[in-house]
């Protein structure tokens, strides 16, 4: 498999000595900033209370906005303890003078971390503080971040209530050009986290209080499942409201046609786009490629990649992934490999989605050997697995009872910082408990807790029982003490 081959680090580029020195300097600076971010992140997850302030103060590391952004980004993607992240966030602002406050990125990231962990009271505390110090940091994106977390965990009614709460907090958004943006943020959230029916019901109940624009209709158009209903909505938008569709509008309707396997309608709509001087983009063609895969025509989809160039539109990684997915679904891995080869020659690097297409097929065929080889090559090519990759692998390791492979994956996650500890640990700890590997289970659980991740009740109860049977009472008490950092206690 081409994707199993290690990609050459050198692209054969020739740089002048000046460019090389400049690039080296930038690379060194980037490396230092990453090292500082990792150091601060480790302080954050390994200290409690006043210890964090003391550690950061004595470290001598300057907490710039960029560094704070990097640390909070690590906290988000490593699923760090939200209260520890919040303590760092607050200290980072309080330790500076001269009216310093966070960037919008840090604010939104902190709100995401809190929302994911149901810390809604703290969300509003942070927002009120942000408004007091610099209200410009609260943007329509901030609204969408918060509403997205609320919608994912709460009801539609509670999501709309949070929307109105934002209106009271930042009323200036609702009396200027951001009015539509805020309304659109609510609708997009409901489309993503609830159902299109919910989004349309809220739209009809609130549309007279706001000013729906083309973006509003694009959001609502993207979620239709029935092509007939989508076409009717398109007509309402263009005929009744007098809005002129853009490439996003057409792409949304083409997506509906492709998912409904109505490719003739999709092709006719592309012709209509050209007639109206709306140029199809890479998303248009990627959608067509996906639709052709749904009707079992991967070779025709492959031709679309070539046809794109004739219209001055060049494939990107998602476009290649869509074509590769078609061959993987058809179990034609050789053809999929050829596309990966072409993709690399064009200067694109396979991403976790690319690898997951192969992992899925190998998982369905229960091919442990090739999956393990693919994993090793993935790391060798400098591509870290995402959570989906890890889940494909850990489930296969459990089926085959390959403890060594499972522990190697876990070690890589701990050292390199990828994947979801919560999801992977449930399967890993289940495997270790099934085989009565109490020492390894205890070690993995401790590593998880030390990184600020709360294990599930089921995992903890199983390990607790094994430790009691093994008379590891002191070790169990140590584990319980370490877990005291979590705001919600594990049930005995």
From TrEMBL:
Keywords: Coiled coil, Repeat
Coiled-coil intervals, chain numbering: 462-489
Lipid metabolism is among the record's keywords: no
Pfam families xrefs: PPR, PPR_2
PPR repeat segments: 246-280, 281-315, 316-350, 351-385, 386-420
Signal peptide boundaries: none
Superkingdom per UniProt: Eukaryota
Similarity comment: family membership: Belongs to the PPR family. P subfamily.
Protein name: Pentatricopeptide repeat-containing protein
